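task queued by scheduler; priority normal; single chain, no ligands, no partner chains; default sampling; output format set to structure tokens
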Amino acid sequence: MTTLIQKIKDIDWAEITENMHQNGYAVIPGLLEDEECERLKADYEKAGLYRKRVIMKRYRFGLGEYKYYDYPLPDIIQNIRTHVYPHLAPIANTWFRALQIDKQFSLSHNVLLDECHTNEQKKATPLILKYTKGGFNTLHQDLYGDIYFPIQAVLMLNQLGKDFTGGEFVLTQQIPRAQSKAIVLNPSKGDLLIFTTNFKPEKGAKGYYRVNMKHGVSEVKSGNRYTLGIIFHDALT
């Protein structure tokens, strides 16, 4: 996995940081090669990799299904989780300081996981999602417990317009005393989309205020849509 780790090091993290501060999201193009995406998709039906399968309709989460990986994670996911996190922790710390939240994150992902495990959050949270025609994901936030990291990521595993149509990634911003803003994104196969888990700070006339954000997926019109979700904290259940 040296190539992937080097790719992560070579990312313009200053630009990513600026985009996160301004927009609450950023896209890293082409982090995974086509072969790596296909490998992750091919493992979808492999027994022993996953701890839980969720049928979204049962819980009114949408229409589709996803599977949570179990530990130990596949190397691709482990390396992304471990080596991307240290570049995101300073962003999260800046946000928390701006909003006067009494919490700062270590630059080591293992320290965050230790905090989770101390709080009995011991379940792996990375997941692979599959949508067929008509599938969608309702607007939501991925917290999983009292210990959470406020930034997460999604990897596109196939290509809009070739493998599926529809299925846009949707973010909403809820600005206090204003209407919600919708953001629609169409990352390509192999792209890593980084975005806020639940909020970002916004500067106003009297200092910083909190803009709450949710994310989801619009209806898939045709084909199959696969994505990989990278959440950096662990879960209670």
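post-processing summary
- The mean pLDDT is 96.
- Residues 4-230 form a domain with the Jelly Rolls fold (CATH 2.60.120.620).
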